[in-house]
Specification:
Oligomer: heterodimer
Largest sheet of chain A: none
Number of domains of chain A: 1
Largest sheet of chain B: 5 strands, parallel
Number of domains of chain B: 2
Order of helices and strands of chain A: HHHHHHHHH
Distance between the termini of chain A: 28 Å
Number of helices of chain B: 6
Strand content of chain A: under 5%
Structural class of chain B: alpha/beta
Largest interface: A-B, 25 and 29 residues
Structural class of chain A: mainly alpha
Number of strands of chain B: 8
Helix content of chain B: 25-40%
Shape of chain B: globular
Number of helices of chain A: 9
CATH superfamily of the largest domain in chain B: P-loop containing nucleotide triphosphate hydrolases
Chain lengths: 221, 201
């Protein structure tokens, strides 16, 4: 357990240090939120209608930003070798890395999500649901995104590859979360969408580490 | 404790190229093996195959002592090469403690490592500010902070100054005396009594 704690602490420290930690993702998120009304017109009713969905979709895109380097630097500097000669199975190592990614980038984005939704004119009563969706969604994005990052190890222009691999896998949680928010906005309750989102997140947390570990082994060998 | 390493019929391929085939080694506790050979002959690949990072094309690698191969690779060997896994943005002290925690050493060994490798003045520096030799000393600390039987070393002497080479020689002698095993890829002779194997001959 203390070994896992040591790895998590180090990964979080590296996550905060890696290119400014959550700041680039947050800045990107803020940029989308600010630019949308400028591009889409200032009709407040129209904006309020799309606000939760946009806040949610922008979160998915912002999550993508910091994923590229999740494994790449460890591969280049021998960090993966060091981790693979340690006591934990590679699957668990990958899970811990994604968890650290979620804590350092996903959680700050989830905190920003209700603010972004309100700025765009969504009702304040929707904020708790936006936050919960963002928190769970960001966890799924971190784990699913990790698959892309692991598959892109050693590739030039890895970021492009990560986006191409990961975007289809981001679609289901975006749909479920968006449905939850839309249904709740219409007053019919967002429970079913939220449950589907949580289910997808659980599946991602359980299965993605297997794929990441396989991709890492392949890259190292 | 790994008591012996047995390699039979080992072949390693990188892409289309076969680096070597049908390699056989037996190394007992307390013995060192120096791997020599031209650049690109496969010394590093052999070390990585023993550590389980590189799947061999054919042949078998067996560890005698631990319950199974995974136990040996996850708990009882060190692999140390040019890519040492140290992070430029972390301080030397943070990295030293992480190596100890991760590889199964303890806080009590950290003090030993700091004293023997004279790491005290480096502890608060970021790893990216260290010279190549200082950085190697920090990486070598894992040999002391986490006692493991089999040392797989890739050019361990290269960036070290004369005094530190003597120190590493002492560390190796002690490790062998306590029943450890060492396999090192080298261009200069190892400073301890060692068998020699030329790869790609």
């Amino acid at each position: 357990m203390s070994v896992m704690g040591a790895l998590l602490r180090r990964e979080m420290a590296l996550g905060w240090g890696r290119g400014g930690g959550p700041l680039p993702a947050l800045a990107f998120y803020a940029a989308i939120t600010v630019l949308l009304p400028l591009a889409g017109g200032s009709d407040t009713d129209k904006l309020a209608a799309v606000a939760p969905g946009v806040a949610w979709m922008a979160l998915a895109l912002a999550s993508l930003l910091s994923l590229e380097r999740l494994f790449e630097r460890d591969f280049e500097d021998g960090g993966l070798d060091l981790l693979m000669t340690g006591p934990l199975p590679l699957e668990l190592i990958c899970a811990v890395k994604c968890l650290a990614q979620w804590i350092t980038t996903g959680v700050p984005l989830a905190l920003a999500a209700p603010v972004a939704a309100i700025m765009l004119g969504a009702p304040i009563s929707l904020s708790p649901l936006v936050f919960v969706c963002a928190l769970a969604g960001a966890l799924a994005f971190a784990f699913v995104g990790g698959i892309g990052a692991a598959l892109a190890i050693g590739a030039r222009r890895g970021g492009l590859l990560v986006a191409a691999i990961v975007l289809p896998l981001f679609a289901p949680p975006v749909i479920f979360g968006g449905a939850a928010l839309y249904a709740s906005q219409l007053g019919s309750g967002g429970a079913s969408g939220l449950l589907l989102l949580l289910g997808w997140t659980a599946a991602a947390v359980a299965l993605a580490p297997l794929a990441m570990a396989a991709a890492c082994r392949n890259a190292v060998g | 404790m790994i008591t012996a390493l047995q390699i039979e019929g080992l072949s390693i391929r990188r892409g289309e190229r076969t680096l070597f085939r049908n390699l056989a080694i037996r190394l007992e506790a307390g013995a060192a093996l120096a791997l020599t050979g031209a650049n690109g002959s496969g010394k590093t690949s052999l070390l990585r195959a023993i550590a389980g990072l590189l799947p061999p094309a054919a042949g078998e690698i067996r560890f005698e002592g631990p319950a199974d191969r995974d136990a040996a690779r996850h708990d009882d060997l060190h692999l140390l090469g040019h890519a040492d896994g140290l992070k430029g943005g972390q301080t030397a002290g943070e990295e030293l403690r992480f190596q100890a925690a991760w590889l199964g050493g303890g806080e009590r060994f950290v003090g030993d490592a700091i004293a023997r490798l004279a790491l005290e003045p480096l502890l608060d520096l970021e790893v990216r500010r260290l010279s190549a030799g200082q950085r190697r000393r920090l990486a070598l600390a894992r040999l002391i902070t986490a006692p493991r039987s089999l040392w797989l070393l890739d050019e361990p002497m290269a960036p070290l100054d004369t005094a530190r080479r003597a120190l590493l020689a002492d560390m190796m002698t002690e490790h062998l005396a306590t029943g450890g095993l060492i396999i090192a890829a080298v261009h200069d002779p190892l400073p301890v009594a060692a068998l020699t194997l030329e790869i790609g001959a």
